[in-house]
Fold this sequence. Notes:
By secondary structure, the chain is of the alpha+beta class. It folds into two domains: 3-151, Beta Polymerase, domain 2 (2-Layer Sandwich), CATH 3.30.460; 163-251, no CATH class. It is built from 13 helices and seven strands. The strands form two sheets. Strands 5-3-2-1-7 form a five-stranded mixed beta sheet, with helices on both faces. Residues 146-246 form the Adenylyltransferase AadA C-terminal domain.
Amino acid sequence: MNQQVVLDKVTSLLKKKLSGSLIGIYLHGSMAMGCFNPLQSDVDILAVVKEKLSVDTYRKIANKLIRLEEEWKMVRGFEISIVLETYTVDFVYPTPFEFHYSSFHKVKYLTDETYFCGGYEDPDLAAHFVVTYNRGSVLFGKPIKEVFKAIDHNYYIDSIKSDVNGAFEGIIDNPVYYVLNLARVLLYVRESAISSKKEAGEWALNELPNQYKYTIAQCLAKYENGLETLNLDEDMLLNYTEYMFKEIEQLSYR
């Protein structure tokens, strides 16, 4: 998959469908941070618009994204949110959004022609805004610092912590996601560093107690496609989760 071709195609689609309302299109997430893995990563994009558009317009965008994913045989696909400019200027938490598309919603868009994801609030957007502001790139439109404002770090902490709230229940079945995301949260509360999962995993290998390094190394290798299967101890995964939550809670909201 040629990353630039993908970005150009999606940018062209959003420019056409959002037309005169479009303020800008911004890349964030792993691709913006230089550690995109097509087998593990979404293509993360935020689009900012001046005014509300029709549900029909957003459904047409979703249908086209599905076709592009199929054309390029994307494993993970796109994660795209469209938000009103008013919320990038005067931030609200959790943040309302106009439209959202991801692989999670793909089946619903395919099987229900009336389905639409939009018009409510998403705490994840605080993290997306912060990553965009600090490490994102412009695909089209106004410069990032003209559209997005710095927001209170407590909103970012709350947002990234929401990604790991189910760790005790989910880490056995999805260890890579939770091991690396817990590291991402701890890295931020310790050092105020905004990182990708890969960067956080590499930091954790050097900074966390030795007893967790095998677990982290396995998950990092799997995330980078260097490992076909994981060989992890379930008790150690739960022990790691307990340690990480304790560290995070001690440092949060300082």
